[in-house]
Write a structure and sequence with these properties.
Helix content: over 70%
Strand order of the largest sheet: 1-2
Number of strands: 4
């Protein structure tokens, strides 16, 4: 039965993405390239509508078949997607976007009804308020960095699929109870819906994801991370490792722009992945590189971090160091005349 719901999510997403592409002009979802873009052609965006509709329908069917406490995650994610869609069409002020993101992340943490004691057995927080704020700011930063990384064909959709599927696979491999959790199947449902969109977004893209999709995926991944950690079949370090490519590129780029006194809050195309796509003249190769990094470097280390919880911090550092060095070598955040 669950497999059928996965198929429904993928098909609904694919159909919705196609319809969005067809009527993008009427919907005001056509993005003209500019000097900050990584594209040179007039291309529809807002394709993330398919991800949202497919994931929401699949999630509703799963939750209806087995009542659970996961409804608030999809409800709050849907609100954020609507805000993203409005931003795609009319461009909201940053302070409005940030305010809504903070409210929704806080609501999600409260709705889940838990607050873990710390990141790991060796890293604990004595103040519940401090840890709440840490989770809150992490959620808002993750939403925005994921949006920053949606700049070339296939990268954001591919990363979401890899993170969700690898998280499911690693958890099932290490915890026998993982695949019996409804959240585990909901993660696969979102991954399937994202694949329905990625068919249209794979290089060369026929449609872009837009904020409606990138903010939705970031928020729902964040929610699944907290849920799976609370249920005991994943860890903070596992999710930190799986999100490494996006966390590193976005953070190194932002810090570099601040340190070099650039207008860091303005749009640009100097992330490491964007610089590399210009150097290679290929979105496909860069996206495949990121996904290969996920599969062959980060997935084994994420598994190792679960199997050796006392060494998880060191393993996480090991995962991040070469990626940070790579981002610096590629000039993440540095200005150029490209």
């Amino acid at each position: 039965m669950y497999i059928f719901f996965l198929v429904v999510a993928g098909v609904v997403s694919w159909v919705s993405t196609n319809l969005t592409q067809r009527y993008a002009l009427k919907l005001g979802l056509v993005q003209a390239p500019n000097h900050r873009s990584s594209h040179s052609c007039l291309t529809p965006h807002g394709g993330g509508i398919g991800v949202v509709l497919g994931s929401t329908l699949g999630g509703i069917l799963l939750i209806w078949s087995k009542p659970s406490q996961y409804g608030p995650l999809f409800f709050l994610a849907l609100i954020l997607a609507i805000v993203g869609l409005v931003d795609d069409i009319w461009h909201l002020q940053a302070k409005i976007r940030f305010g809504i993101q903070f409210i929704l992340c806080a609501a999600l943490i409260a709705a889940l009804g838990f607050l873990p004691d710390g990141i790991s057995p060796t890293i604990q927080f004595t103040s519940v308020s401090v840890f709440f704020l840490l989770l809150l700011f992490t959620g808002v930063w993750w939403i925005n960095l994921y949006n920053f990384m949606d700049g070339i064909d296939g990268i954001a959709g591919g990363q979401a699929i890899y993170m969700l599927i690898l998280a499911c696979g690693i958890s099932a491999f290490n915890y026998s109870t993982a695949s019996s959790s409804l959240a585990w199947w909901l993660m696969l449902t979102v991954a399937t819906a994202t694949f329905g969109f990625l068919v249209m977004n794979w290089p060369p893209a026929k449609i872009f994801m837009g904020d409606v999709g990138s903010t939705y995926l970031a928020f729902i991944i964040y929610g699944f991370a907290l849920i799976s950690i609370n249920e005991g079949w994943s860890t903070y370090f596992m999710w930190m490792i799986l999100g490494c490519p996006f966390v590193v590129d976005a953070t190194v780029t932002l810090v570099t722009r601040i340190l070099t006194r650039q207008r860091w809050h303005e749009a640009h195309r100097n992330h490491a992945y964007q610089r590399l796509s210009r150097k290679w003249h290929s979105h496909r190769q860069v996206t495949l590189l990121v996904l290969s990094l996920d599969l062959f470097w980060l997935a084994p280390l994420a598994t190792l971090s679960i199997r050796n919880p006392q060494c998880a911090l060191g393993i996480t550092i090991l995962a991040y160091v070469p990626v940070i060095l790579g981002a610096l070598a590629l000039g993440a955040g540095r200005q150029d005349n490209a």
